[in-house]
């Protein structure tokens, strides 16, 4: 599993949560960092969770697409956002690209159900 979140404390929280559920987690603050950590190929990502708004104008949808380009287009991904200014068009685009949107605060049970339904081993 790959988690991309630019806020270190939130990233650590996701990592601890997912590891407590038994997942191996690649936790990164950007798509570049995630791809660097995956570079050796020892881990094939089975799921990608990314915050919508990342640093330097990057978005979670772009980050998910970059990981998919490197490891396969069928990897499930979800975008998390707490930003109420995200336009409906951007959210529709994410959904059309197979990226469900979860709004912060994320409900742990909802997230776990989503993972169970879509995680690729």
Task: Write up what this structure looks like.
The protein has 121 residues and is α/β, with parallel strands linked by helices. The protein is built from 5 helices and 5 strands; from the N terminus they run E-H-E-H-E-H-E-H-E-H. Strands 2-1-3-4-5 form a 5-stranded parallel beta sheet, sandwiched between helices. Strand 1 (2-4), helix 1 (8-20) and strand 2 form a beta-alpha-beta unit.
Could you list the spans in which at least 5 consecutive residues all have pLDDT below 50?
A: none
Shape: globular
Quick check: average pLDDT? Answer: 87
Report the CATH architecture: 3-Layer(aba) Sandwich
Rg (C-alpha, Å) = 13 Å
**SSE string, helices as H and strands as E:** EHEHEHEHEH
Provide the domain count. 1
- Taking the alpha carbons of the first and last residues, their distance comes to 9 Å
Q: Please name the fourth-level CATH homologous superfamily.
A: Response regulator
The number of helices is 5
CATH topology tier name: Rossmann fold
Q: Tell me, what is the CATH class?
A: Alpha Beta
Question: In what order do the strands lie side by side in the largest sheet?
Answer: 2-1-3-4-5
Going by helix content, strand content and strand pairing, the class is alpha/beta
> What percent strand?
5-15%
Helix content bin: 40-55%
How many DSSP E strands? Answer: 5
């Amino acid at each position: 599993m790959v988690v991309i979140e630019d806020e270190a404390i939130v990233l650590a929280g996701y990592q601890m949560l997912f590891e407590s559920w038994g997942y191996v987690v690649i936790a990164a603050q950007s798509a570049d960092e995630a791809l660097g950590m995956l570079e050796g190929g020892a881990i094939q990502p089975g799921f990608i969770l990314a915050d919508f708004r990342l640093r330097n104008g990057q978005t979670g949808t772009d980050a998910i697409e970059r990981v998919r380009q490197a490891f396969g287009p069928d990897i499930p991904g979800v975008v998390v956002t707490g930003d109420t200014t995200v336009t409906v068009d951007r959210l529709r685009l994410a959904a059309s690209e197979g990226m469900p949107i979860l709004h912060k605060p994320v409900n742990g049970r909802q997230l776990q159900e989503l993972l169970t339904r879509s995680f690729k081993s």
